Amino acid sequence: MSNRVVRSAALAAASLWLLSGTAFAQQTVLKFWDNQQTESGLSVFQQEAVKRFEAENPDIKVEVTTIPYPEYQQRLLTAVQAGNGPDVSTVDQIWNSAFAEAGAIVPLDDMAKASGVKAETFFPGAWESANYKGQLWGVPFNVDVWFFAFVNKKLFADAGVDPASIVTWEGLEAAAPKLTDKTKGQFFMGLTGNKSEYPVVMTDSFIYSNGGSVLGVDGKCALTAPESVQALEFYKKMTEYAPAGILNAANEPMRELFLNGTLAVELWPALEQPTLDKSSIDWDLLAGFAPAGKKAVGTYGGWNLVLYKASPNQEAAWKFIQFMTREDVNGAVVDLIPANVAAAKAFLDKSRRHPDVILDHLNNAKPRPLSPRYLEVSEIQQNMVQKILSGTPVADATKEACAAIDAL
To answer: How far apart are CA 140 and CA 135, in angstroms?
Structure first.
């Protein structure tokens, strides 16, 4: 081989090395943070999505950080305040407005309009949860509803009660004593009253289904309105048919009672179905309950994707948000329910019982109050529920709760 050929080969190799080094140096590194829910394995789905995104966008490298849910919000806030937060992350729907109010995230209206990201692509309540003060502050990623009613078909059959009858409050009240036998340790419904978000979302669903709300359109507390008071009175009445110790009862023990066959009705999001499919319980699924002539309205749960103001990679971050909520991707990267309606339909048809019931309930559900002080509102509601279940008249408890909420 001549020296000229050797020199040419060396120059070509050096050029390739320089080009690849330049390309690598120009690769955008995108920081994505997500919560790791205890039982869901959500990060596994997210990692697979990241690989697919990187294959479609070789100029972008995504670094994934997953954090257990109980630690997630505080670590996210601390990182953002310290200036080393992510470019994009999931946030719980109930945090979205607080992050917007703090100026931590950017409004997405212009990006969404330019990219064709539209409200009708997503479930109405999920899209609503990402809006605050007339602007869009996130894109819905995944959703579920508190609550669906899972019923033990054997217990209903033994009691001679048609499960379909309990979709009305009247039917629910008539069925409750027939399916409760405290001497046998059998109870009708797994209601809770402990200091947690569960009694909040449960009572919200009763309130919404009766045409009430937690906050009115003026932002003031609406818990003293007749619709809300009536719903809370009904909730209190139904706790007579729940397991004892309700003030300290969390939702997880109720699930265990349902799984061991001593609870007739379990209230849980649709994510419970895979667990029930593995059990020996002969179960069925209903939407919620509402007074006769009204439709059950569930309380939304789920996550939105947000873009951080301090991110130096906002264009790449927006591209990632679009990818994760795309119809052909969204259903493959969540283990709740895709927020993209078309993706959700395909996902539910493939993997869930009664997909039509679930879709209808998702389309009808409402988010929790869109307040930057939501966590404080929730704590006030938790205290209110505890007082109601401890004997305080509902009218008094709601009046006290509204005074506290309006003082915020």
So the answer is: 14
Assess whether pLDDT exceeds 90 at residue 367: yes
pLDDT one-digit tens code per residue, 279-326? 999 999 999 999 999 999 999 999 999 999 999 999 999 999 999 999
C-alpha 349/C-alpha 331 separation (Å) is: 11
Question: For 131-185, how does the pLDDT look when each residue is reduced to its tens digit (9 = 90+)?
Answer: 999 999 999 999 999 999 999 999 999 999 999 999 999 999 999 999 999 999 9
**61 φ/ψ angles, rounded to the nearest 5 degrees:** -110, 130
CB distance 29 to 63 below 8 Å: yes
Helices (H) and strands (E) in the chain, counts: 18, 12
Alpha helices in 239-373 (DSSP H): 251-259, 273-277, 314-324, 327-330, 341-351, 355-364
Structure tokens, 175: 């069925």
Distance CA 374, CA 195 (A): 15
Q: Is the pTM of this model over 0.85?
A: yes
Amino acid 130: pLDDT: 97
CB atoms under 10 Å from CB of 373, counted, come to 15
- How far CA 185 is from CA of 3, 66, 235, 254, 291, in Å, comes to 92, 41, 21, 13, 29
| Diameter of the chain measured on Cα atoms | 99
